[in-house]
Design goal:
By secondary structure, the protein is an alpha/beta fold. The protein has a domain of 71 residues: Alpha-Beta Plaits (2-Layer Sandwich). The protein is 38% helix and 23% strand. It has twelve helices and twelve strands. A hairpin with a 2-residue loop joins strand 8 and strand 9. The radius of gyration is 20 Å and the shape is elongated.
Length: 291
């Protein structure tokens, strides 16, 4: 048995009764609002192609549709990317902005996230351009240029309250991942280590690099440590280096993702914020933990 879940951005909800009635008329099933105007589920829809039917009816309306299994719906381990996932920016691009070379670095970032460049080579090239940046300026970027992605804290706090373990695994840097991971509420954070000399960036990154293989290995490692199967896990990210963990997780979600990731992820969010991952798991409004 399956469940069709519709979600929208809580800041600008587009999920209304008219749309729900139109979809229900075509696919059937039992309708249950998870959060009025924001998330709804159709339990055991009768139409064989219910997901495609729903997406066709939704059209350009800013509503996401995903089909999830009934069994093992709530996950016990969450692995999340950081840049452009749990935070809105790419940290390395913002560090480039501090030196007036944001566009140069952002172009490399974009190509790497689309899977057009080797991640390690792209990382080395970008960090090399940051050589000489003072630690104080890195912290200033962290403090003034980075914002939290909507729904992130409620996602982490709700899953942790219901017994899940949460890990931030980033191809970015520990100076950001440790800082933001702690404030969002993650149980742990893993990221690359920038190297300094006299409190200035040397233009190098400590080895080994945190890349797509590291992210997959972390998912597998934490699942084993928690005595969980991969079916019990959720992974979320937006870039090519997230794709392996998204494929491997029981519920792999591409959120506002690059085309290469969205095309292969089983679950996709193009409009919803991070709280949508809770509705995908069957959490209702009353279950959400807002701290």
């Amino acid at each position: 048995m399956s469940i069709l879940v519709l979600t929208t951005n809580p800041a600008n909800p587009k999920l209304d009764e008219e749309l729900v009635r139109a979809i229900h008329a075509e696919i059937g099933g039992t309708v249950n609002w998870l959060h009025q105007s924001i998330a709804i589920e159709f339990i055991n829809p009768k139409a064989a192609a219910s997901l495609q039917i729903a997406r066709d009816i939704i059209g350009d309306t800013k509503v996401d549709a995903n089909l999830v299994p009934v069994l093992n719906r709530r996950k016990k381990l969450l692995i999340a990317d950081m840049d452009s996932t749990m935070i809105n920016e790419e940290c390395i691009d913002e560090l480039g902005a501090a030196l007036g070379i944001k566009e140069q670095i952002a172009e490399i970032t974009e190509r790497a996230m689309r899977g057009e460049l080797d991640f390690e080579e792209a990382l080395d090239a970008r960090v090399g351009l940051l050589k000489g940046l003072p630690l104080d300026q890195v912290k200033e970027v962290r403090r003034e240029r980075i914002s939290y992605a909507a729904g992130g804290r409620v996602l982490i706090q709700t899953m942790k309250t219901h017994g899940a373990y949460t890990a931030l695994v980033s191809g970015g840097f520990t100076l950001f991942a440790d800082y933001f991971g702690k404030r969002i509420g993650f149980d742990e954070a893993t990221a690359n280590v920038l190297e300094f000399n006299d409190d200035r960036l040397t233009g190098t990154v400590a080895r080994p690099i945190v890349d797509k293989d590291t992210k997959l290995a972390k998912l597998q490692q934490l699942a084993a440590e928690q005595n969980l199967s991969l079916d019990d896990t959720m992974a979320v990210g937006d870039g090519a280096n997230d794709l392996m963990m998204i494929r491997a997780a029981g519920m792999g979600v591409a959120i506002h993702a690059k085309p290469i990731v969205a095309a292969e992820a089983q679950y996709q969010f193009n409009h919803s914020d991070l709280s949508g991952l809770l509705y995908l798991q069957g959490y209702e409004e009353a279950d959400l933990v807002r701290q």
